[in-house]
Amino acid sequence: MDAKLNDFSEIAKILSSKNRVARDLFTLFRLFGIGHLLRRLSMEKHCGVSAVQLIISLCLFRVNGDSIYSIYKKDFYDLVKTGKNCYYRILSSSKMDWRRLMNAFAVRFLCILRKNHASESAENSCLILDDTTLEKTGKHIEGISKVFDHTVCHCKLGFKLLLCAFFDGKSTIPFDFSIHREKGKKKNYGLSEKDRRKQFSKKRRKENPDKVRMAEIDMSKLDVAIQMIKRAVAYGLKARYVLCDSWFTCEKLIEAVRTLGDGSVHFVGLAKMNSTKYEVHGKKHCADELVTLYEREQSHSCRKYKCRYITLKGRLGAQPVRIFLIHYGKKERWNILLTSDNSMSFIRAFELYQIRWNIEVINKETKNYLGLGKYQGRDFNGQIADATLCFLTYTVLVLEKRFSDYETMGELFASVQEDLMALTLWQRILSCIERMLEVLAQRIGMTAEELIADMIYDQNAAEDYMVMFEALKQRQEQRLPA
Q: How far apart are CA 300 and CA 194, in angstroms?
């Protein structure tokens, strides 16, 4: 049993007719050196099958919009010979360190850019934090709960996925993530006792990576976010800023950011217009009070972004911050933007914060094109594996987009999926041709392999076979009723 991925690549090159600075999907996967990464994780094989083959196949299935079950029923029929149980086993594996693989993938992305002289200046490099809802349908999925979705303002059955992404000045790639649940007001995860009892569960060994991932499910997202940004810096991602929305902005996160890179990393993020006190000129005030006190004297107009703003120097707890109070048009409500860089101008802070929206694009595109959150397996390990594969595939496609800069991500997904569909169709056509040759070979007392060899290497024999084929065709037509 083996997945003929080398054959995939050759056929894909033959079928590809697009005039772009393109490398096929398989070539891009080779650039990332998955085999080398897996050897470092001691995961070269899984149940006797190459883990590289399994992972790349799972990524290709995802691009094509198919589940493991469906690919054995239709689109990839006869392309992949590996049994489907191998895929399910690697998804639920306790020993597979998906986090290290994803972290190394992001680092490899930057190495490929440097090698191809396509890297960007680090002036605007950022780590971005955000969470999104993964909606599920099964109440018996391990660790499932009701989570509040702020986009629709009500609770949904599922998980919260916390994502840490890296922006290098041009592209944004996923670096790390964690999956969380919420206890809710009644501390019952929004589920009945019966549903909680029926949830899938399994014992995990302390030394295995899945033990850590399962423990994160009940950890504070803020604590895990701090671990992620520290891990990113340790892996060599040279970020100058950490960006986040108002949910994460607090003294604890700013303090953690300022310890990174010996104080070379700064924080930029929105804050909530609530009762949080900021110390300005030796006195503590909430955001609304600061607007009342300083609107008339220190308000400025920004023609570029059509807004008014107030700039103040202050402190959030023990952390020095530069405060920007922003007002748009005729809206009554003000917004508050904070940065730990006291020399930063309003326009610079405003433009840096806009980079944060890139992570929203990642969440949207991975859900729309790669099926993030659609996996319904009960094992929590499978949830981690599925999300990781989604982000690995996205990173590969971002690299393709980087090399073919004129294509939108939507166009890129469509073209890659079209190539895979053409590949599947071509394989089926080859199967039909092979079957016809077998029938013809049986008629003349030869094997299909001998017949193909004669047709390729012996021109006279090929002409004779074509005459016989035409005769058989005419005979068959005569036997058919009018």
A: 59
| pTM greater than 0.85 | no
- What residue numbers bound the domain in which 174 lies? 5-245+356-421
How many structural domains does the chain have?
A: 3
Contact 267, 340 (CB under 8 A): yes
| Segment (H or E) for 299 | strand 299-302
Q: CA angle, 108 as apex, 102 and 114 as ends, to 5°?
A: 150
Q: Which residues pair with 197 in a beta bridge?
A: none
pLDDT digits (tens, 9 = 90+) for 87-132: 888 899 998 899 999 999 999 999 998 888 877 777 899 999 999 9
Beta bridge partner(s), residue 278: 285
Same domain, yes or no: 299 and 435: no
How many residues belong to the chain? 482
- Residue 88's nearest CA partner among 68, 71, 117 is 68
Amino acid at residue number 347:
I
The pLDDT, as a whole number, for residue 448 is 56
User: In the predicted model, is pLDDT for residue 39 greater than 50?
Assistant: yes
Least confident of 112-121, 198-207, 290-299, 429-438: 429-438
Residue 431 host element (H or E)? helix 409-444
Mean pLDDT of the chain: 82
Q: How many CB atoms lie within 10 A of CB 463?
A: 10
Residues 45 and 164 in one domain: yes
Q: Is residue 442 a contact partner of residue 451, using CB atoms and an 8 Å limit?
A: no
Residues 292 and 342 in one domain: yes
Query: How far is residue 120's CA from residue 283's CA, in Å, rounded to a whole number?
Result: 43
The pair of structure tokens assigned to 86 is 């191998």
End-to-end CA distance of the chain: 47
Cβ neighbours for 310, distance < 8 A, ≥ 6 positions apart = 290, 291, 294, 295, 298, 299, 300, 323, 324, 325
Strands 266-271 and 278-280: unpaired
Strand partners, 178: 162
Question: Please, what is the Cα angle at 191 between 189 and 196, to 5 degrees?
Answer: 90
pLDDT at 432: 56
Q: Does 254 reside within a domain?
A: no
158-189 pLDDT tens trace: 999 999 999 998 899 999 999 999 999 899 99
Please say if the pLDDT value at position 145 is more than 90: yes
* Neighbour-count burial for 157-196, b at 16+ CB within 10 Å, e otherwise: bbbbbbbbbbbbeebbbbbbbbbbbbeeeeeebbbeeebe
Q: List the structure tokens of 454.
A: 């004669």
Judge whether 251 lies within some domain. Answer: no
Determine the Cα angle at 392 with ends 53 and 270, to 5°.
Answer: 170
